[in-house]
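User: Can you fold this complex?
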Amino acid sequence: MENFEKSSDPSPLNIKEMQEYSRRFIEDRDWTEFHTPKNIAMGISVEAAELLEIFQWLTPEQSFQIKSNSGELQRVSDEVGDILHLLIRLSSLLNIDLKQAFWEKIKKTEKKYPISLSKGKTAKYSRLSHD
Amino acid sequence: MENFEKSSDPSPLNIKEMQEYSRRFIEDRDWTEFHTPKNIAMGISVEAAELLEIFQWLTPEQSFQIKSNSGELQRVSDEVGDILHLLIRLSSLLNIDLKQAFWEKIKKTEKKYPISLSKGKTAKYSRLSHD
Amino acid sequence: MENFEKSSDPSPLNIKEMQEYSRRFIEDRDWTEFHTPKNIAMGISVEAAELLEIFQWLTPEQSFQIKSNSGELQRVSDEVGDILHLLIRLSSLLNIDLKQAFWEKIKKTEKKYPISLSKGKTAKYSRLSHD
Amino acid sequence: MENFEKSSDPSPLNIKEMQEYSRRFIEDRDWTEFHTPKNIAMGISVEAAELLEIFQWLTPEQSFQIKSNSGELQRVSDEVGDILHLLIRLSSLLNIDLKQAFWEKIKKTEKKYPISLSKGKTAKYSRLSHD
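Assistant: Here's the predicted assembly.
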């Protein structure tokens, strides 16, 4: 219906295939004992900060312009890939369904920030309600 | 209702649908101006730390036992959902293909940590190679 | 000599007194076993993200204006206090001299970013040198 | 040369001197415009994650043994120095008294986690009170 360009139509993620590949990757290196949920959660924070570092000194406008800087965009893509890998790994270890986690949480956030109270404001709901 | 073994076969993620839903969620609240790539990257670090906090005081063993504590597991699932939402949002803003980001990065990591040098060690490759 | 206002002349930090107080605080609550260096490092990331969250949606200009918003400034001060507490705790556990850590590291950073190469640029030195 | 037992009696931090040195360091490099409170807060998260990374794969016991590994201990000290530098920088920009921030916050934490309710537990007070 909508006249999307190809780039706006990303492929679905086959989580099962990604989990399997990741598991084998870890087992091949005998890293299983290091992969506690606690250590994976640490890894997500570490990778998230490497992503953050790319944007650290940029103005808001420059942070959009990364889109046309192929070197920096590749760095962003690599960090995004790392974070996604660790989310997939954690979901595998704790038997969390990523799809369900996404939809459940966004529905909760919709309730927490109702449109009428949230328009154009980013404050926490707890404070919004006192405005 | 669904005839589906969640743990063994997680559903694929329909990224396009998630991106569209997220975009509408943001637009409905007039939050578009706040959603610079820089601010989204900050959000990922903030949510990653909320995930980290859940595991902060746990022993390695306890971090696995979260699997059978439904309350704590729900907290983990909510944070995972938030991080995934922000990854999807960032990929949408910068036109990054999440599937490609995952596979490209895991292939790079495989080269950086070859099985023969990495077995049972977690040190950075740069240091591994000097061992 | 310089005609500083009172607020510009902060008191020296008595690290020993702070370490002692913190140690007693932890022992009184039987928290010693939880205070591994690893867990304290996690705590620093958690508190740093709580600080980050305060600034998440602000423009660069608004991030300065926090100075005149006593409620938000108190939040910042509280997070700064938490991070400093955990730095003091970690330095105590690992026998690190905070004063020496500060001066040693700033001297290294001065060498890594020489004034002539760094003026007005924030890129990493490794990339600066290729400009 | 100095007749001084480092571990038992760390030197007080002369915050004023550190703030002045840091200000000159920034001005010499024309970095003032980049040093918004928002960007400094991002820097603290980035450095905190670099500290976290050192401990990521260590067992609780190994995280104590870093004390006798001079190379790793130096890495920890460098990250601690960076975080302290940024705390000092932020306190300078927002006119926060670090000493006061520490003592105010630890007193609040003492009230939030009273000894009688907190002994040997690390759960948040909000949940403690419902136990």
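The interface with chain D takes residues 34, 39, 42-43, 45-46, 48-50, 52-53, 55-57 of chain A (CB under 8 Å). The CA atoms of residues 16 and 127 of chain A lie 40 Å apart.
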